[in-house]
Amino acid sequence: MTRSIVICEKPSQAENIRSAIGTSHGDVLPAQGHLFTLADPETYNADWKLWQGFHLLLPDQFKKVPTIGETAERTQQQERKRKAIATALKGADRVIIATDCDREGQVIGTEIVEALGFRGEVMRAMFTSEDAGSLKEAFAALRPNNDYRRLYEAGLARERADQVYNLSLTRAATIALIPPGVKAILGIGRVRTPTLGIVCIREIAIQRFKPATSYGIAATVQAGGREVVLTHHPDKPPVTDRAQGEAAVAAAIGQSGALVVATNRKKKAGPKPPDLSTLQEVAGRWGWTASKVMEVAQALYDQHKITTYPRAETRFLPEALIPAAQDITAALGEFGPWKDAAPALATIRTGKQGVFSDAGLGGESHHAIIPNPKTLDTLPTVYDALSADERRLFDVIARLFLQSVSADYEYSETSMSLAIGEATYATKGTVPIVPGWRALRDTTGEGDRAKDEGDELPAIEDGSAATIRTAQLAEKTTRAPERFNEGTLIKAMKNAAQFITDPALKERLKDAKGIGTQATRDTVISGLKDQGLLMVKAGKLYPTQAGMAVFALLHKVAPALVDPGTTAVWESRIDEILSGGISVDTFVQEVAAQTRSLIEILRKAEPTTAFGTAAPTAPMMKAAETISRKKGVPLPSSYRTDFAACKAFLDAHGTPRTEG
Question: How far from the centroid of its chain's Cα atoms is residue 655's Cα?
Answer without folding.
Answer: 58
